[in-house]
Amino acid sequence: MQIHPMWDSYPELKAELKETIELINKEVFVRNKEIEAAILDMLQSGGKLLRPAYALLFSSFGDSHSPERARSLAAAIELLHTSTLIHDDIVDEASTRRKKQTIQSKYGKDVAVYAGDYLFTVVFRILSKHADSVEDMTVNTKGMERILMGELNQMHLRYKQNMSIRDYLTQISGKTAQLFALACFSGAMEGSDKKSFARNCYYIGSHIGMAFQIMDDVLDYTQSSKNLGKPVLEDVRQGIYTAPIIFALRKEKKELAYLLKKESAITQSDAQKIQQIVYEAGGVKEAKILAEKYTKKALKRIESLPNTKEKQIIQEITENLLIREM
Amino acid sequence: MQIHPMWDSYPELKAELKETIELINKEVFVRNKEIEAAILDMLQSGGKLLRPAYALLFSSFGDSHSPERARSLAAAIELLHTSTLIHDDIVDEASTRRKKQTIQSKYGKDVAVYAGDYLFTVVFRILSKHADSVEDMTVNTKGMERILMGELNQMHLRYKQNMSIRDYLTQISGKTAQLFALACFSGAMEGSDKKSFARNCYYIGSHIGMAFQIMDDVLDYTQSSKNLGKPVLEDVRQGIYTAPIIFALRKEKKELAYLLKKESAITQSDAQKIQQIVYEAGGVKEAKILAEKYTKKALKRIESLPNTKEKQIIQEITENLLIREM
């Protein structure tokens, strides 16, 4: 099993991530072996494992650190993330993810619906097996609930051309940012008893998540020519407008608005044109500045963490997320 | 809000069920009010509330009974049931349920996917808020996991014409029976500390669930003429074969098998013919006998419960499930 090369510089963390994936392998059990393989394949498809990595890193502070419990938590976070991806793929009718066929396209939406549901329950099983107290559980379930509520609210905002940056930020704060916040917060809670400390970590995670999602949306507009227009095409057809487009619409209202109104009739060449207009109107640049703002907010709070090697890793990877190219 | 008339004879229980639904109303919160209304509407659409009723009834035994905690549990059980129904409707592309438009057909599968997911997390929130111990949580999450695993395994069995009664029983024991078993078991655990007692209740619930599902499948074949063929049509097109058809296939192999092989091309008139063949081959009668067997098993175990008025209600409703007509 391959762990993403971004962790090569941190061999200890890499080993922990490997054990986390092995734990997941042990916990996922489906009688139908084909479906089990599909789920495990998705869990091992070379994602960055950022969320479990942050959970592991934030569990290192404080006195009550247990590596075993931290791994369980990291596994639960990654499983939660994966189950939301499996369900996202149903909604988006996505045929591929990370260059592999999605569960919904390969096995049908029936398998995708129940596989995601099943993983949800595995998340809770792992959490309750390793929770020290009912309070631990409550903290995690509240975090998970916010993530799903974020998704429900996102629905509301589709095809809303006058969507503001505020709407966009609300949207991504509901889902991506909450998941990162949950990873950092529950990691911190695992290692330390101090709630104020964990709360600080919650905000760190939230800022990281915001920066991460904005950069993800920026990357859709700066893809290599081979993929040009493709991710943009899927989003705009479904009425999903992200930071670059929203910023661009402030400057270049007419032609861009005309193209977007075609909605599901938007063609590949329309999408390329949209991409070009967005770039030229400075949408990409402004979105990058916005991402940077969140990264800086996160880094400022990270500064207050105890001076350990884990703190340094957190700093490095958080900075690197901003300059990544995929 | 209407509580199903089947509870009119038990005013105290009816009042508890009403409070359970009110609790659910309080716990479900979605910013998008249209979606919230859709979810609450589904939760109040006049279902029989059998699962929460059993949870409430079984919580009455033992010394540590807390009405408030029992209601939370009952609410969680009903929410879990509803979330699986919302997701089932995506899989089955069902347009109506209990004579109302399904969430997936009214709001699209995006809303249905996330609404079901959201309700899952509400289940866990309620459970963790009212759990006395982490062990309580583990018990409930394990039960929930079995339900979802049952669904994943069911996928495997579609279009399997040589499906045996054993396959069928495995299938329904995974989903429906587990949910009833969980209702009775966790109800019992709530009121009593004795695990052996709760284990007995688990089996009672499981037998009740088996009888209930078999009768549900029987009713598809004994519908009034107005609906003749309709539920059967949907099932056989999707390759879902239930007890009446499986028993009938033992007697009448040729014509029935020929019709079933048409799969998604099965017409309304084919379905009526299937229904007729199944009836004439004794499939309905044999399925009823099978349901009766499970009811008897349940009643035998119910006999061992402490002699209270709740025991009597459990006996009555369990017997009545067998002779219901809808």
From TrEMBL, chains A, B:
<keyword id="KW-0479">Metal-binding</keyword>
<dbReference type="InterPro" id="IPR000092">
    <property type="entry name" value="Polyprenyl_synt"/>
</dbReference>
<dbReference type="GO" id="GO:0046872">
    <property type="term" value="F:metal ion binding"/>
</dbReference>
<protein>
    <submittedName>
        <fullName>Heptaprenyl diphosphate synthase</fullName>
    </submittedName>
</protein>
<keyword id="KW-0808">Transferase</keyword>
<dbReference type="Pfam" id="PF00348">
    <property type="entry name" value="polyprenyl_synt"/>
</dbReference>
<keyword id="KW-0460">Magnesium</keyword>
<dbReference type="InterPro" id="IPR033749">
    <property type="entry name" value="Polyprenyl_synt_CS"/>
</dbReference>
<dbReference type="GO" id="GO:0008299">
    <property type="term" value="P:isoprenoid biosynthetic process"/>
</dbReference>
<dbReference type="GO" id="GO:0004659">
    <property type="term" value="F:prenyltransferase activity"/>
</dbReference>
<comment type="similarity">
    <text>Belongs to the FPP/GGPP synthase family.</text>
</comment>
<dbReference type="InterPro" id="IPR008949">
    <property type="entry name" value="Isoprenoid_synthase_dom_sf"/>
</dbReference>
